[in-house]
Amino acid sequence: MADIWPMKARLKWMKTKLGRVLEKRKRDDSDNEQQNSENDVPLPKSRISDEPLPKKTKWINRQRVLVFAARGTTQRDRHLMNDLKSVMPHSRPENKISRREHLVVINELCRMKNCNKSIFFEGRKKQDLYMWISNVPEGPSAKFLIESVFTMQELRLTGNCLKGSRPLLSFDDNFKKEPHYALLKELFIQVFGVPHRHPKSQPFIDRVISFTVLDNRIWYRHYQILKEDGALAEIGPRFVFNPIKIFDGSFTGNTLWDNPNFVTPNLYRRRMAAIAGQKYVSRRHQKLAYEMSRPKVSYPSLPEDDIFEGDTLERAAQVTGESLSSEDIINKEKDEKLKNKLRERAQIISFKKKKISGKKKKSTSEVSE
Fold it and tell me: How far apart are CA 59 and CA 203, in angstroms?
């Protein structure tokens, strides 16, 4: 027991000494912190750093566009749809649907394909092409008449770009002037712009998609960036958006904007036919007016105009007032006889030719039998 107590006392003394040392260190640290806080200056909220920003490796903007068509589209329309699919790596295909289906069914198809945007082609009368661009399922949606379509295979332009690259979207200043153009601009950005870090996209920007407003229409052009100084080469395709209506829902809803300058293709063709008919009517009127105003006798006839009509010898005798001699009469009779003989020979030769051709036809028919 005598050996244990000194050991306990020693441990107690060490603990008390260690506690004092730790308390002293805490006091010193607190004093140093107070001094540093008095000397420190607050840093600005934003600062310029030479270090590159950390790259976001996640695919945040998850835009998927369902591109498909209805039955009844022409070959050119299908080629245009395939061209758009080739330049939009974030697009998804779908089978054609019947024209009898209601367009609201497209919202369900987009939900099944996990898409939040849609481009739908609708053909009518094998000559008119309509395009729907919609934000699924809330809206808005816009309907266009596609005009002046030229596909990549038709143009065969020199431009070429990396498949899956991201484009720059260029918009005209007119998109800032009207509210419906501003809405269409935002819709085009979300549909035609390739999302950053998309799995099927390439981390390069080597092409430009241009949207230009001209003559109440939106002109679509696709270019390749050749150099940094702005040299471009067209890739294709080419087409023109003729906006018809903008709805607040996806393929349904109230009409937000209606194009007052839009003319349906049927009405346009009817007007062109009427113009062509007016040309025919005006041409007939001109002809009748010419017949009414034309004089019956253009110029007075002269007695010498009919000098070469009929037999030359008789006409010469009438003009000179002399009678024909016996030699002239004999020569005239000889000429008539020669003419008659030549006519008879020509008839005989033609008759023989007909006989020979008939025999040849019979022989060929017998051989075939």
Answer: 12
